[in-house]
Every structure is written in structure tokens, then in C-alpha cells.
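Can't paste images in this forum, so I'm doing it all in text. The chain is below; anyone willing to post the predicted C-alpha cells underneath?
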Amino acid sequence: MAKARVDARNLMGLAVDVMRQSIAELRADGKASPRVGAVLWKPDGTWA
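Text version of the structure:
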């Protein structure tokens, strides 16, 4: 199986898209929760 080429810019864009879809959780101290996005890159070139 050949390794897939990683396009870091594309993966960062996917992570930003996931981050924008995240829902803020309420905190007891009233502060805003950070928005987090993560993309898992698999060795076969797929992502989740």
C-alpha cells in the first residue's frame, strides 16, 4: 500500500470547517468555551 500525500493546508481547512460546526458548552464560570476542530488523517489517505 502506497502512502498518500498529506496536503496540510487542506487538512487545516477541514479542521476549521469542523470547528465552525462545534457547539459551545455552557460553563459554570460564564466564560466562553473554546471552539475546537480536529481531523484524523489515516495512513491509507482517508480522514475522519
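The radius of gyration is 15 Å. Residues 1-48 form one domain.
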